[in-house]
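The instructor's notes for this session suggest beginning with a concrete chain rather than abstract definitions. Hand out the sequence below and ask the class to guess, before any prediction is shown, which regions might be ordered.
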Amino acid sequence: MKRLIYAFALLLPGVAHAQDKERDYCPERPGLNTPPCIVDKGHVSVETSVADWTLDDQPDSRTDTVLIGDTKLRIGLTDTIEAQIGWTPYGHVRQRDKTTGIVSNEGAIGDVSLSAKINLMDPDGDKTSIALLPYVTLPVGRSPVGAGDWGAGVLLPLSFSLSDTVSLAATPEVDAAVDQDGRGRHLAYSGTIGLAFKLSEAVTLTGETEVMRDDDPAGHTTQALTALSVGWMATKNLQFDVYGAAGLNKDAPDVELYAGISRRF
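After discussion, reveal the predicted structure:
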């Protein structure tokens, strides 16, 4: 009798929805692209870079930037909308002047970012998926890690399933980026495209390329980057990742390396 009642209950709309399968966990890290998938309603994803090192080696100077604990919190609000909060607790910048040999070291906290990801098609991100992601940055940090003023922008994350093991992703972005002197804003825009290869049920390898134009009044630049990353889903709610990027032109940083962890609650 109990089995009969249970089977009948599954036919009721409200109960049927309660039995829906939880989405596969879809962290935004690692990589250059932003996936359009949404965290399940009522769930929270904490995504942290344990350590992030960037080298910018120019003819007259060398700059090493290390970020510790760069974290994003994603909160599922509805089936198609999530809220996001990002913050860098600490960053350290070391700069060496190649002409004089003078070395400067500065450490500071970073800015806070607030954003909302609104999925427009396929919030699971399994097939053809599209989302809109507007954001704003709040100048709570200090130079040289904090930008010094508020900024804003919007991303349009896209993904397309090419097969059971290969997917294509792209992320066009337009920003009101903070000027280099920390006062005012200017136009910046970028485009990222990449391919993700599912090597197994737990391991995904992703290759990406990004081109970014920055019209800062202090000097216009165009950066080109290529990146390779690996994500390992240790459990259905836990991912470890590693990432490496290389600059393709003189305006881009030479190297960026990081490792991180993502956990869904």
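Then share the key points. The CA atoms of residues 41 and 77 lie 5 Å apart. Residues 2-10 form the longest helix (9 residues).
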